[in-house]
Amino acid sequence: MEAHENTADRQLRVGLIGAGPWARAIHAPGIADHPGTRLTSVWARRPSAAAEIAGPYCAEVADDPASLFGSVDAVAFAVPPDVQAELATSAARRGRHLILEKPLALSLADAQRLADTAADNDVVTLVLLTRRFASDVRSWLGEIAELPGWQGGSVRWISGGLLKGPFAGSPWRHAEDGGLFDVGPHAVDLIDAALGPVTDVVAAHRTPSGVWQLVLDHQGGASSTVTMSMHTPVRPSVNELTVFGEQGHREFRGTAVEPSDSYTALLDDFVAMVHSGLRDHPCDVRRGLHLQRVLASAREVART
Predict the structure, then answer these.
(1) Local structure of residue 241 (DSSP, 8 states)
(2) pLDDT tens, residue by residue, 68-83
């Protein structure tokens, strides 16, 4: 009994903001099932939706975000980026640790404000860049990092995710820059991790059908291309990452790891960071801010 109580005492009380498909499928069960966390509170714009998520896990339904922040150690967000930016900044001001979705915000200024507030209040932050928490992706990127001389690479992330499915009705994703800011963080993060930090967006173009094409420069001299679409009816979706150079050509296609397992890996890191006092992580809020800068630059280049 004593061991059980000690474990419960060390579990992080986590509140969930949002009650959409991703909150239901990934956040809520992941938090509830992880040994280091407890789902204790849920808030959503519609209380009935929050209650549907909270009920199976014996969590409370918060009256408002402020009351949720007051009863938890950490907050997970599953809401549109403009809503996340405002509420996560408020949560950070209250010293709550943050599990963030990508992108951090819809504007670079809001993303910067969130990152600054998190740093000022010394909170743990992780951004759910799902592929980066997959064990096979981590292994592949680790192998690439050990080999010198990469000269270039590419990412192709092509799907019909906004044609139908659980996210087809998401208004912000259907905006002119929605595909860039939804898929872009994943795609840019992967090629950036493989080839080194992106230093410049050389070219960016969006077709009328919503296909984005980027040309990026990387620190160290490598160059890459990124192709993204969420309006192309392909089955299965195309997720390809390639690099080439002095070590030849290496390719990674998709991942065998389920999103729920990636979320568990994120929670492993998150809990360890909170208990150890560490704040630095390859996928922390500063990473999210770096990706936001690249995407903001791409949007401006595409408009010129």
Answers:
(1) E
(2) 999 999 999 999 999 9
Pick the CATH number of 131-256+291-303 from 2.40.40.20, 3.30.360.10, 3.30.70.2210, 3.40.50.300: 3.30.360.10
Higher pLDDT, 238 or 285: 285
* Beta-strand relationship, 150-158 and 223-229: parallel
The larger pLDDT score, comparing residue 159 to residue 7, is at: 159
Matching residue, tokens 């094409």:
213
Q: Kindly provide the b/e burial profile for residues 96-119, where b requires at least 16 CB atoms within 10 angstroms of the residue's own CB.
A: bbbbbbbbbbbebebbbbbbebbe
CATH 3.40.50.720 in the chain, residue ranges? 2-130+260-281
Is CATH 1.10.1740.10 the right assignment for the domain spanning 2-130+260-281? no
pLDDT 10s digits, 163-172 = 888 877 788 7
Q: What is the chain's Cα-based Rg?
A: 19
Task: Write down the pLDDT at residue 115.
Answer: 98
How many angstroms separate the CA atoms of 31 and 125, rounded?
15
In the chain the first and final C-alpha atoms are separated, in Å, by: 65
Spatial neighbors of 227 by CB under 8 A, at least 6 apart, are 154, 155, 156, 157, 158, 211, 212, 213, 214
Does residue 151 have a pLDDT over 80? yes
To the nearest whole number, what is the mean pLDDT of the chain?
94
CB 244 within 8 A of CB 251: no
Looking at the DSSP bridge assignments, the partners of residue 241 are: 155, 252
Q: Give how far the C-alpha of residue 196 lies from the chain's centroid of Cα atoms, to the nearest Å.
A: 19
Q: Looking at residue 90, what is its pLDDT? A: 98
